[in-house]
Amino acid sequence: MQIPDSESRATGVSGYNMRRSGLFSWLITTLALSALSLGLLSLPEDFSQPIRLAGRDLSRPGQTVTRAGVEVCQAGLRTVRDWQARRVLLDQLQARLAAQGVRERDFQSRVADLTRRVQRAEAQRDSKIAGIPSEPLFVPELVEARVLSSETVTLASGRKMPGSRLLGTGKSQGIGENLLVLDQGRAVLDIGTNHGVAIHQPVFAGEIVIGRTANCGSYTCSLQPVTDAKFQSPAQLLRKTPSGWQTGAEGVIEGTGGERCRLTGIGVKEAVEVGDEVYSPAADPLMTGLPAESDSSNRLPPPMFYGHIVRAKWERGATYWEIEVEPAAKTVRPTFVWVLKPKENAVRVLAN
User: Fold this and answer.
1) Is 216:183 a contact under the CB 8 Å cutoff?
2) FRET pair for 323, CA 20 to 30 Å: which of 6, 37, 118, 160?
3) Which of 228, 229, 227, 247 is CA-nearest to residue 238?
4) pLDDT tens for residues 257-307?
5) Fold of the 134-163+178-352 domain
6) For 146, left (φ over 0), alpha (ψ -120 to 50), or beta?
7) Whole-prediction pTM value?
8) How far apart are CA 137 and CA 345, in angstroms?
9) Rounded to an integer, what distance in angstroms lies between the CA atom of residue 148 and that of residue 145?
């Protein structure tokens, strides 16, 4: 055990005395200020008013500094809040931009996929052309027909079929070969089975599909328009792009019984826009035209036009688009039409 020397003891005593002196000074100051305050309160107002005013004037710079500090702090808080709000808005804009980029990449992927499909189909076609030639068994043949007016039909009906408006289809009902075929409310063409025409054969006005044959007799047949509720036929989208015409998905065009048609069977993953055009499928063998050496008046330019899309939408969770088509046949009133029928290829038959 080390005994502190006299110098250490002196230092400790001096520090203790200093602490006692500081505490005593603080206590004296506090008591003095308290006494002063009590004295001011006890003084008459005439004596204390000038003193209070002087104290207020002395404290005003401190109040001004304090108020300025508070205003600076509030301005800083507002700046921070504005920055946070702008940061949230910036994050939202960045998220929308990223989503738009994803949609754009998806659209470009679809366009690239369609381009590859077209190129693959063209390559297959070129390979078939370069290989051993094969004649098709059936080739398309166009038969010209006149659209009979209602006056002509009524006159012929009165002479050939008194008391009848719709012709049956069997001899057991007393039907002869020289009678007209009438279908109330539909146009009538002046060709029939004696021209090789059968039911459900396409009918064109120029390059526009206006319908197909319905009831057929020996010399006449009725026309089922594309807007008829029972009309159905394969169809394909065709859209114009900066690089040219691009074929789209295939579906089925159906009549609605009104003034428009609908296109069904087009998946929601396919690119569809209002204004896209609807044609007969380019891969249909009866829609690819006649051989070059055939009569130019019977040539069929592929594909044939149905109309253009006027409304396209899809519901969340749906598998297919809901597409409405404005038929081009709505704007034509032909007096002559073409009926497309398959014909045996004489070259193929003789080759076999």
Assistant:
1) no
2) 118
3) 247
4) 999 999 999 999 998 999 999 999 876 656 544 443 344 344 444 688 999
5) Thrombin, subunit H (2.40.10)
6) beta
7) 0.53
8) 5
9) 9
